[in-house]
Amino acid sequence: MTNKASKGSLFPYIIWIALFVIAPILLVLYYSLLDLNGQFTIANYVKFFSPAYLSMTLTSFWYAFLITLFTLIIAYPTAYLLTKTKHKHLWLVFIIIPSWINLLLKTYAFIGIFGLYGPINAFAEVFGIEPTQILFTDFSFIFVAVYIFIPFMIIPIFNALDKLNPTLVYAARDLGANRITTFRRVIFPLTIEGVKSGIQVTFIPALSLFMITRLIAGNQVITLGTAIEQQFLVAQNWGMGSTIAVFLILFMVIIMLFTGQKKSKGGRV
Amino acid sequence: MKKLSAGAKIYLVIVFLVLYAPIFYLIFYSFNSGETMNSFESFTWEHYQAVFEDSRLLVILINTVIIALLSGLIATIIGTLGAIGIVSVKNKKMRNTLLSFNNVLIVSPDVVIGASFLILFTMIGVKLGFTSVLVSHIAFSVPIVVLMVLPKLLEMNTNLIDAAQDLGASRRDVLTRVILPYIKPGIFAGFFMAITYSLDDFAVTFFVTGNGFSTLSVEIYSMARAGITLTVNAISGIVFIVTILIVIGYYFVTNRSKTRHAEVRQ
Question: Do A9 and B116 touch (CB under 8 A)?
Fold first, then answer.
């Protein structure tokens, strides 16, 4: 297919790359070097390394870490057990369907569920526990975020487990490995690529959440995403917002390098 | 295959319950004649009526669907042509560069996409509103379409194209009568994914929508910030039904194309 017609079909695509991939990155870089009056400065970068911003970045990472960890802890066994069911692909569809329901609606549901008079508190009251405000706490924030990300973590792990050759597991068992050793030395290492892509699709968005922090954490939690939204849409300080965005992109690249897929060492045997 | 143990079954049941509980909770209270999501008073359709009587909300619903369909369509055209173009690039380095550019918007956090598009539109003077939202949705849907179409193109036997050309087909014929029919399932999947991305997007739209234009996600956000209104529950009931219908429709379409392929092969 080296004819000119198919080369020509690249034209709109190249324009798309130039306008919506390259230009936005350059513009963010450019704006990160501007102050509020449009003068060139590196003040934004200096400000990013001030204690206030550094601690915000650290807490953002801490929350993203916790969210990813809990998501993984719940998703891995789910994916593993799903591959053992009879109609596994059908069950997987049922896992995926909730991820297609609008994100805002799912988040809104938790405003009611975690509310002071909501079902969780009503349930706790049966056991004589006084109703407490669950909304606007770290717990509610992490819970909702984990809830949102679970399907996205299950899918890549499910696919990796699905590709795993079962004879390897049988071989390990025949050679005397118990269940834990089989999992630790055979199953987990062979599905690590799936885990890595799961972490990728959870950790990076978790760093940049801002809708859930606003609705569920009630401004108690500030993530990098919340800070960007704040600077762009509330404070109207595009320079500072762009600087945080530049760092978010940097973190993203670093995470991608860490969780990058090694083509030569795939999960297939 | 061993049967699942009782513990394993309970675990799966709990996961499914937790995944679906919030959705059914929302839908359940959409029929509540009371004002809150705490105590169910009596059954009513009034919140659904409220959705269909609120002309502002209806306009937003229509806008959301128009944006999704239009952006999906345009992104599918650009993405399919792009994928065909990428495959035609023989230089490996060049091709990989194109593919990495393709992935940038897929992995970028949506806040960054939204913020950078906001700067872009302000710089080139696009008024924030319908156009800016439509263009951004096209922009972030294109790479998904490319990713859905590319595998189909790569598995296609190039002999088919050579054969068509030998038999006197023009370039146009090759494209419309050989390549496009073959990659049709990939194009459908790409279009479908583009629509779901568009319908589900909040962050990017939130940045590039000005005053006066709103999509469903953005509207729900502002309603939710104001507190609980059961109108939102009624919307989620409608959205759930529509989502299920789309899923069923999608499976119907893909399965039909699969069986057709099988028939052709036989």
Answer: no
Query: Is residue B18 within 8 angstroms of chain A, CB to CB?
Result: yes
Q: Are B89 and B153 in contact (CB under 8 A)?
A: no
What is the rounded CA–CA span in Å between residue B80 and residue A113? 43
How would residue B4 be classed by pLDDT, with cut points 50, 70 and 90? confident
Q: How many CA atoms lie within 13 A of A135 on its CB side?
A: 20
Taking the CA of residue B101 and the nearest CA in chain A, the distance in Å comes to 7
The DSSP code for A91 is: H
pLDDT in tens, A76-113: 999 999 998 888 888 998 898 888 888 899 999 999 89
Cβ–Cβ contacts within 10 Å for residue A34, how many?
Answer: 19
Interface of A with B in 118-177 (CB under 8 A): 118-119, 122, 147, 150-151
Token code pair at residue A156: 């890549």
C-alpha to C-alpha distances, A267 to A83, A159, A195, A231, A262, nearest whole angstrom: 16, 10, 11, 43, 10
B171 to A31: CB separation less than 8 angstroms, yes or no: no
Is there a contact between B38 and A118 if contact means CB atoms under 8 Å apart? Answer: yes
State what percent of residues in chain B have pLDDT above 70.
Answer: 95
Neighbours of A58 (CB within 10 A): 10
Q: For residue A268, which of A197, A172, A194 has the smallest C-alpha distance?
A: A194
CB B71 within 8 A of CB B138: yes
pLDDT digits (tens, 9 = 90+) for A165-224: 889 988 998 998 888 888 888 899 999 999 999 999 999 999 988 889 888 988 778 899
For A30, the closest chain B residue by CA position comes to: B119
Q: List, for residues B119-170, the tens digit of each pLDDT value.
A: 999 999 999 999 999 999 999 999 999 999 999 999 888 888 889 888 988 8
Q: Exposed, middle or buried: residue A9 (CB in 10 Å: 0-12, 13-18, 19+)?
A: buried
Q: Please name the member of A28, A94, A103 whose beta carbon is closest to the beta carbon of B119.
A: A28
Query: How many residues appear in chain B?
Result: 266
Q: What is the pLDDT of residue A6?
A: 58
Question: Does A38 touch chain B if contact means CB atoms closer than 8 Å?
Answer: no
What is the CB neighbour count within 10 angstroms for residue A117? 13
What is the predicted ipTM? 0.88
Tell if the CB–CB gap between A1 and B84 is shorter than 8 Å: yes
Cβ-nearest to A13 among B78, B228, B240: B78
> Alpha helix (H) ranges present in chain A?
4-8, 10-17, 23-32, 43-48, 51-83, 88-100, 103-113, 119-126, 138-163, 166-174, 179-182, 188-190, 192-207, 211-215, 224-229, 238-258
Contact B23 A98 (CB under 8 A): yes
Is B104 within 8 Å of A21 (Cβ atoms)? yes
